[in-house]
Protein 1
Amino acid sequence: RSENKRILITGGAGFIGSHVARLFVNKYSEYNIFNLDALTYAGNLENLKDIEKSKNYTFLKADINDAESIDRLFDEYKFDRVIHLAAESHVDRSITDPLAFVKTNVIGTLNLLNAAKKAWKEDVKDKLFYHISTDEVYGSLGQTGFFTETTAYDPNSPYSASKASSDHFVRAYGETYGLPYIISNCSNNYGPNQFPEKLIPLFIHNIMNNKDLPVYGDGKYTRDWLYVKDHVEAIDLAFHKGEINETYNIGGFNEWQNIDLINMLCQIMDKKLDRKAGESAKLITYVKDRPGHDKRYAIDASKINKELGWEPSVTFKQGLEKTIDWYLENEIWLDNVTRGTYKDYYSEQYHSC
Ligand code: NAD
């Protein structure tokens, strides 16, 4: 599929999107990469400083909720392929403002699908709408079992309901209008450039600043964690070698109960910050649970492993070390993103706990 050269990445100023944009810009000089992002609180062009001057990279500030702009950009730039990551991505925010999630994640995705359908109607050969989604669409697991690509959707939070809906629309556009698509559903990502409202960067940031570490419920929620660069390698593979109209589950084969993960994080941070062993763990504070909190997610990633040869390249400990080092070396980035509106959100989110 290398003859297609005009690739639209949506949400490329966010956490995962910026790593996708960097890999595609650096690895495929023959592609023109267009990064479309509305720069919400989660989008940050600082994430892309190293590639912003690259010849094959263009930033387009636009909102996927604005159908007219999206149509116009498809007309003007003639994208052949889309990697769609733009989304409202934080579960807690979806509980306080579900409509924002329907707007961007559902309607925004529809706007992109409609634009692609119109632009590609003459010839869908070698076109692709690659939709990036989450394992949260499958709902919650008991103590055993894994999500596979055929697990029924059973979303529990407004975030996962909006992502599930967008997945269904992508598949429906494939079936109804013949739009070539791929969907991948990935487990929890962590790594550099993640906005510090998500568990791992939030806790790194709080440990650095001697602030409480708010642990939901009994701390026994279980998640599968994947280093962001391993997710991006999987996206690269699925984009180039995946079967059209297929879904791939991506996961780290790496399940952790929150409290065990947090204790490991505290131990590594104690060493990095020259603190006494056990010092950071003293900051752990149990807080009121998140409503509708899914107990356990676990991905069976054997399809992408067997069919495309993908597997994670780093262990959890290695990935966490790299992540912590990045946050310790990028305090200015952290200061910038935690200023202003984020502070209000943070105190609103945790003040009643
Ligand atoms: P993020 O919140 O860090 O970034 C989202 C980006 O989308 C930001 O740059 C933001 O400015 C942009 N955006 C938001 N609304 C927009 C709009 N209306 N128009 C244009 N741009 C808009 O999110 P992330 O964690 O990087 O997640 C990226 C994608 O991957 C999402 O679709 C998410 O559902 C999916 N995903 C995330 C994870 C995870 O653990 N973070 C796991 C699996 C799947």
Protein 2
Amino acid sequence: ASATQALAHNLNASERTHFVLVPMMAQGHTIPMTDMAYLLAKHGAQVSFITTPLNASRITGFIDHAVAKGLAIQFVKLRFPAVEFGLPEGCENVDMIKSRDLFKNFMDACAALREPLVAYLSQQRQSPSCIISDMMHWWTGDIAREFGIPRLTFNGFCGFAYLARYIIVRDNLLEQVEDENELISFPGFPTLLELAKAKCPGSLSVPGLDQIRKNMNEEEMRSSGVIINSFQELEALYIDSFEQITGKKVWTVGPMCLCNQDSNTMAARGNKASMDEAQCLQWLDSMNPGSVIFVSFGSLACTAPQQLVELGLGLESSNKPFIWVIKAGDKFPEVEEWLADGFEERVKDRGLIIRGWAPQVMILWHKSIGGFMTHGGWNSTLEAICAGVPMITWPHFAEQFVNERLVVDVLKTGVEVGVKAVTQWGYEQKEATVTRDAVETAVSKLMDEGGAEEMRMRAKEFGVKARKALEEGGSSYISINLLIHEMGNPGKCI
Ligand code: UDP
């Protein structure tokens, strides 16, 4: 065991820095927070992980693992007041919200967790050392002040997108532009960045959310620092620039997905996989190394049915083996019908379709995977970077268009499929704007022999650097230890 782990086991509870982690209940936010809990505990801290019954049931694989390993993580299940706030019983995750009109209700229900959380923390023998909460949980700022402890924010963005978002908010960039297609530039951004208004984070208008956004931004400015799930060797220019411009202390502690490479936990990351993992591995084993394109758009993206059909036809004409994760089945029966009406039969020798939750990290890590067509959520992007897999970017909304610029222009480990229109969360989209030809072209650019050699090499190099960052003595490893030290009682922590 490493020196840190050995020391961690020798600390008793009162000596450990105690972090309270309050994740947003959305997969892209909760999953990295479970990794954070694991990392902090492995480095000798104590963690209270705040969750709700339904969300806890999704991460039972992780909970069992933490218990088996004897990690100092307490899972605190607070009752989520869904019904009181006009949500259906059991609606405890953003991916269960049926209409964007209910998003404010969901946010209000989250804020109502304040009292039970205070009650829980008050019952503990010692006050915690620090709250790390999602940026969206603005109401945790008050709790930190009540207990006289720091609050650090986390929102799952990379440094590049964090900086872009900060400049948008600081300069009110979106309000100055009427036309959704007008290009916005980012004063003070260290490299050239221009994006249409509609493609900027924060451009989604959600009923009743203005005040909540204001609270979030104000509380973020009052926070004692920011945790970023990235690593210095990937994007130091933007992380340092964010630190300088905001004057906030930044801890870069990623890629957190590398924290735990136990195959069972990896396969059940975020939720129980909807397909048998052994079967999935068997399929992957039967393919040539680097030959398969993996297609998945995260947990929230709602791709239009027509668009899914075009995507499928593009994959078909690419003639490459693929794994395609589709979550539309329950929402769009027409897609299910189309799949059954010949498509699945035609591609059965080289196409694997996963309906529902896929064991994404397990798949990305497999040697048969040669490319990842992704919506560009930061977790997915970082997972691909760790696996050394180049990408085809297909952004839908939020900061995904910003991430696309990082991957394509800066890291140069991906090609874009060429998305023109935004597919906003919670809006019905009817049309396909990316054609099957565009899909085929992007796949062949990335996967054809000799086509993307340089990109592939760069992706592999970043994968190596990513692993080094979290190894003993690596930049993120050191940053985690410093975080624990600074937030704990000086002299008692690692
Ligand atoms: N994920 C997964 N299986 C799925 C869909 C998503 O394991 O079928 C995981 C993925 O590995 C990532 C997270 O869910 O860790 C999604 O986060 P991301 O930031 O990529 O996108 P979001 O879902 O927030 O749009």
Protein 3
Amino acid sequence: MDAKRLAGERAADYVEDGMAVGLGTGSTVYWTLMKLGERIKDGLHIKGIATSKATEKLAAELGIPLTDFAEVEQLDLAIDGADEFDARLQLIKGGGGALLREKLVAANAKRFIVVADDSKAVTNLGKFPLPVEVVQFGWEATRRQLEKLGCSTQLRMKEQAPFISDNGNYIIDCQFEAITDDAVKLNEQMNRIPGVVENGLFVNMADLVIVGGRDGVVTEQ
Ligand code: 5RP
């Protein structure tokens, strides 16, 4: 079975009746949502908060009831994918451009489970360009400030126009040589730059990473 599917489906086992669940974005957590859709047909009762418009749409198609933070003070669990994870469960996320809602949802969950295939495991974060969501106004100035942190940058494009996030913002992808033991500091430095809304470093947030191996074995770390 596909490695992403193995990890995604396993995560659905952690969802219990009555839970409020953060629903991530991407092709790995897709399998979690599919599984949850099946379990709901069999009588599972949950409420979800989606991390993107795409996940909102998929949840509606699968019959997963949605709620919001007006109704829910804290989620029991959030499940989401990652673009990179290291041995300390630090992550880079935002490859799909949903990092702001993803971080907000994970930060307001009692437990945060990450699902990934084994190609996402890294020794040092940073090979994957770090996505940073910025407001459109003055984005060129924000970009220059980001570059002072030691990265080269690229405005994310889609069909020859800037990619627009679900929140109406731009994404700047920041390529570092490597992000070693300074991920906590870098996360803070980035978010202090005026114009930055959020960045894709998820430090000290993940409680568990479920990894699907291309050999068909699922591990939890
Ligand atoms: C979207 C994300 C995704 O979780 C991340 O890109 C992983 O996606 P996939 O499971 O498709 O590899 O952060 O913003």
Protein 4
Amino acid sequence: MSHPSIVDGWFREINDKSFPGQAFSLRVDKLLYQFKSEFQDILVFHNDVYGNVLVLDGIIQCTEKDEFAYQEMITHIPLYLHSNPKKVLVIGGGDGGVIREVLKHDCVESVTLVEIDETVIQLSKKYLPNMSCGFTNEKLTIKLVDGFQFLKDLRNQDKFDVIITDSSDPEGPAEAFFQRQYFQLLKNALSNDNGIIISQTSENIWLNVNYLQRLTETAREVFTNVKYCSTMVPSYTSGQLGLLVCTMNDQIDLTEPTRFPTTSEQSELRYYNKDIHSASFVLPKWVENDLN
Ligand code: SAM
């Protein structure tokens, strides 16, 4: 087996458009799987430090070592902001990490996963067992369709309290998720003005702050209350990834959780707590005016 992203035994994440002049590299200690699905190029390999690594279209999606930093923040920020989240929608998320975190909230009655590529779900069951552990939960419904189309076809009675967009990056099947029409569809899919959405922004402040500023402005054309927060994930480019949190309720202070993890919920979390919720919205001075 060989793969164009693997040279001399090292996987190299190179993208001259999004991260010019730099590359992130992980040693491939064992190549586990490679396949071109109908939607994307898929690679799974093992690295002795990071564990199993899932790569889509040449971009790292998750590693077993640090995935919790992303999954916990993209899930618990919106869920602890909502006073009583019962119906949750996850768009993308075929690795199962976000589903695992959503199911830690007993108040959630149902969670719908909309994933375009069934191969990712199957691979996660095989190579990322700690992330895919929620796939058999009876609260979960899986729809194997395009997330954009799913939202377009959504009926009025099927709306959600929280919507998490856990997609891959804009170059590929997730391109539509970074545009105004998508934010409009998300707004329409919320059960009421207290609904919360969160989306991964794909870029980070070091490499593409202008893009993040445009994305934040696009979200603000649709939602009245929008904030950017961030999480530290060493295997993502430059180690920092932003999340965009939006609601139509201006009374909600997005930087403060509405509910706090109980002692038993907190014991299952390794990254999120109420302090890191607030701290994640505090940005370095050179970007705070641009984004928040
Ligand atoms: N945590 C990751 C990150 O930020 O890099 C994202 C992980 S998850 C694996 C991303 C998922 O989004 C993939 O499984 C991909 O198949 C799915 N996806 C991409 N475009 C999609 C679309 N249009 N509709 C539904 N799912 C989509």
